[in-house]
Amino acid sequence: MSDAPTNSTPTNPVEKLLRMERIPHIWCPGCGVGTSVNCFARALDKTDIDYDNLHVVSGIGCTGRVAGYVNVDSFHTTHGRAIPFATGLAIARPEAKVVVYSGDGDLFAIGGNHLIHAARRNIDMTVICVNNFTYGMTGGQVTPTTPYSAKATTTPYGNFEDTFNLPNLVESCGAVYVARWTVYHVRKLIKSMTKALNTKGFSFIEVIAQCPTLYQRRNKLGDGVMALQYYKERSTVQNGAPTVDVGLDYQSDIIVGEFVDKPRPTFMDKYNTRMTEILGNKFVPYEGVK
Amino acid sequence: MKADPAAVATGVHFIDGNEACAEGAIAAGCRFAAGYPITPSTEVVEHIAKRFPKLGGVFIQMEDEIASSICFQGAIWGGMKAMTVTSGPGLSLMMEHVGLAAMTETPSVFVDVQRGGPSTGLPTLPGQQDVMQVRWGSHGDYEVIALAPNSPQECFDHIITAFNLAEQYRVPVFFMMDECIGHMLGKVRIPEANQIDVRERKFTERPPGQYLPYEIYSGDQPEMVRAGMGYRIHTTGLTHDARGYPEMNAQAQDKLIRRLCNKVLDHTEELTLCESDQIDGSDVTIIAYGITARVAAYAVEQARQQGLKVGQLRLITLWPFNDRLIRDVAQNTRSIIVAEMNLGQMVHEVRRAVGDKVPVHLIDSAGGAIIEPETILAKIKEVVS
Amino acid sequence: MSQTEIRICGLGGQGVIMAGMIIGRAASIYEDRFATLVQSFGPEARGSECSAQVMVSDVAIAFPYIRTSDIFVAMSQGAYDKFVKEMKDDSILVYENELVFPDDQMPKGAKKFGMPGTRIAEDELGRRIVFNMVMIGFFTAVTKLIDVEAMRQAVQNSVPPGTEEFNLKAFNRGYEDGLAQVG
């Protein structure tokens, strides 16, 4: 830590964002979560966001640990509840950018109700969902995104439930920006993250990522590299694709791209507008903690 | 410091406990609330929703109580004073976030207007059945502060106390009203703002780099910051070290959990609010809290008119429980009656503190209606005869 | 008497709770005495039984529930039948005399004052909704518990803005009827 960087040892651009004293991280070799964090750091670098005004909130799970590694005000909350915590934080800190960084199980199973309401309200936050189709931290159980027939510890005979199409779900709930990439598409993901970070309102990025330890192995899909190969070969970029068409099946083609970009007033915009209309000069807008 | 004169509804009012609670919270500096409709507490947030837009505050009706009970913690870490309000089933849903507030030392106020339970139970009728739940409801060991007002005036006065204690001790503070107190109208005198002491959040004066969010620099509380001050803090519900980083082993757990408990327990005496009356030399002393204490006072008055020597102890602070206070009562009275609108909750604490020094009797109720003063009077006569 | 126990009971929609609230406000805000109000009502917002227990006192009130009433305001026969037995000897019954018919259950020495509040509100004043204002005006005159000016102030500050005059008119109509009865 005390060694000043020199020209011969260029600092990794990601280090600026990370709590380097906490590295090595807990993610398994070949895991895709770290790649997404790398992209997030690079995306941040392309924005004007002051790191002191960037707050990261996570739930519980492998991706839920992201909050613990980013060197900004960061909150590791309870399972499924990152979004309501972030809602309170975003309202209290209108000058800040609040990012929720969590996984598919956390955000769409236990936290599903909060996600749809935050999108409906258009709370000013960016939600990054690392979708690895499994609960990694607890050992590989089925999630609302695990494709039909895929094996999990709680679906030993293959999953038989239907899944959520995440972009379609959040779009129909009112998200202003929706994109999906895999961790193979690092440049496009960075660009998309940059855009989401610069967007006012509820923005959502699904990041498809591999869990080599549990999902890949249990389904005999090989290691992390094999997963990236699959993402490379079977993904097609279709910006503006109707989200209703982007559902995923087991090892199917993957439609990636920016699907939704339609701004609308945020929760606080609408609050301020309505109260001004009704209360006139009796309305005292909340303008942040002095 | 003192309350904001622009926000305090100074004057004499005839309002119910729920509205008085809302006004008290406003006077205490609360400017964010998250809640979900539930009887019999809803009027608290309804009043807040009406008042906040004129005071620079924000109320949000969340999608459920789970969301409410963490949303307001997000606002607190954003620097606001905030609360959530609920009853019965809503309180049950909030339990995980009571633990989060305890673990992350979030200065949080939970208002609970109690009704009869379990489950949906008696939505519109009173109970005092949540006193153990607020103490033990979240998993793990932790301590909370709980206050029980017994009038609309106290709903105003003591919700301010609740906010001040939350800031001082950085623990979940429960404000334990009940349906009777919440819906009863009474005279509430709201003082001038300059007569209302409000404890501001004390932020650290250490510069970034020389500050850790969970280090104890003096006393037994860590120093707080809010998001956006440049400290780049981390908080987690995991067992953590002084940096707020996960440290999951028996030693770290022991150090942290004992500190979280002791920072409350070591201050039990300062935290004790109660009213005692004619206990010394009495034949029996009634211990009660909330609405039941008002009923008991009426019964005690009647008993005294009949020449009986009856003392009364009204608990305002329910948690932390003050054993010394109860032992002192036991020294000076010949028997104790605990009256509460549940099938026996605080009586266990009283019996534990008293031991076999004097007999401890219980007047219980499954909830739904106040305990009748005649019932208390009859028990007094039975005990002293 | 330093503490007066008042039971007001009728049907939902008659403005029972508002009547109790105005009495409580008048006493605690405009006379600087003490009052409490405890309400109970059925699950339906209209038509089911609705009861207010009001205490008015010169000192702080410990116990807000009525055991025996000093004043009973009965606005329906069902209300009368239910609560007549809690009336004290020498207490006062205030009632709507086209809806409630007092009988020999009345305690000894109790006085009764009745007026047709519903008909007056509906036919004479043109708005049934001010029935409760007529009745509390009447109550004010016959019980002399609370100063009429304090009651008028409480009425003014309890009704929706813009309706003050009309509500006061109804209050005064009941008050005059009461004065005529007590002389």
Would you spell out the secondary-structure blueprint of this structure?
The complex is a heterotrimer of chains A (290), B (385) and C (183).
Chain A: H1 33-45, E1 54-58, E2 73-76, H2 82-92, E3 97-103, H3 104-110, H4 112-121, E4 125-131, H5 166-173, E5 177-182, H6 186-197, E6 202-208, H7 212-218, H8 224-234, E7 235-237, E8 254-261, H9 267-279
Parallel strand pairs in A: 1-2, 1-3, 3-4, 4-6, 5-6, 7-8
Antiparallel strand pairs in A: 5-8
Helix pairs in contact in A: 1-6, 3-4, 4-5
Chain B: E1 11-16, H1 17-27, E2 32-35, H2 42-51, E3 58-61, H3 65-77, E4 82-86, H4 88-104, E5 108-116, E6 122-126, H5 131-136, E7 145-147, H6 152-169, E8 172-178, H7 179-183, E9 185-190, E10 234-236, H8 250-265, H9 268-271, E11 274-277, E12 284-289, H10 291-305, E13 310-315, E14 317-319, H11 323-332, E15 336-339, H12 346-354, E16 360-363, H13 373-384
Parallel strand pairs in B: 2-3, 2-4, 4-5, 5-8, 7-8, 12-13, 12-15, 15-16
Antiparallel strand pairs in B: 1-9, 5-6, 7-14, 11-13
Helix pairs in contact in B: 1-2, 1-6, 3-4, 10-13, 11-12
Chain C: E1 3-11, H1 16-30, E2 34-41, E3 49-57, E4 69-74, H2 77-83, E5 87-96, E6 111-115, H3 117-124, H4 131-143, H5 148-156, H6 164-182
Parallel strand pairs in C: 1-4, 4-5, 5-6
Antiparallel strand pairs in C: 1-3, 2-3
State the total count of DSSP E strands of chain C.
6
The CATH architecture classification of chain C is 3-Layer(aba) Sandwich
Please identify the structural class of chain C as seen in this structure.
alpha/beta
| Helix/strand class of chain A | alpha/beta
Share of β-strand residues of chain A: 15-25%
Helical segment count of chain C: 6
The SSE string of chain C, one letter per element, is EHEEEHEEHHHH
Give the terminus-to-terminus CA distance of chain A: 34 Å
CATH topology of chain C: Pyruvate-ferredoxin Oxidoreductase, domain 3
Question: What are the low-pLDDT stretches of chain C, counting only 5+ consecutive residues below 50?
Answer: none
Shape of chain C: globular
Write up this protein:
The complex is a heterotrimer of chains A (290), B (385) and C (183). Chain A is 32% helix and 16% strand. Chain A is built from 9 helices and 8 strands. Chain A has helices spanning 33-45, 82-92, 104-110, 112-121, 166-173, 186-197, 212-218, 224-234, 267-279, and strands spanning 54-58, 73-76, 97-103, 125-131, 177-182, 202-208, 235-237, 254-261. In chain A, α6 (186-197) links the parallel β5 and β6 (202-208). In chain A, α1 crosses α6 (186-197) and α4 (112-121) packs across α5 (166-173). The radius of gyration of chain A is 19 Å and the shape is globular. Chain A starts with 32 loop residues before the first helix and ends in an 11-residue tail after the last helix. In chain A, 52% of the residues are buried. Chain B is an alpha/beta fold and 385 residues long. Chain B has 2 domains: 11-195, 3-Layer(aba) Sandwich (Rossmann fold); 273-384, 3-Layer(aba) Sandwich (Rossmann fold), CATH 3.40.50. In chain B, the strands form 3 sheets. In chain B, strands 2, 3, 4, 5, 6, 7, 8 and 14 form an 8-stranded mixed sheet that branches. In chain B, β4 (82-86), α4 and β5 (108-116) form a beta-alpha-beta unit. In chain B, α11 packs across α12. The termini of chain B are far apart. The model of chain B has no long low-confidence stretch (mean pLDDT 97). Chain C is an alpha/beta fold and 183 residues long. In chain C, 39% of the residues lie in helices and 26% in strands. Chain C has helices at 16-30, 77-83, 117-124, 131-143, 148-156, 164-182; strands at residues 3-11, 34-41, 49-57, 69-74, 87-96, 111-115. Chain C has a 6-stranded mixed sheet, sandwiched between helices. In chain C, a hairpin with a 7-residue loop joins β2 and β3. Chain C is globular and about 40 Å long. Classes of the chains: A alpha/beta (290), B alpha/beta (385), C alpha/beta (183). Chains in contact: A-B, B-C. β2 (73-76) of chain A pairs parallel with β10 of chain B, so a sheet runs across the interface.
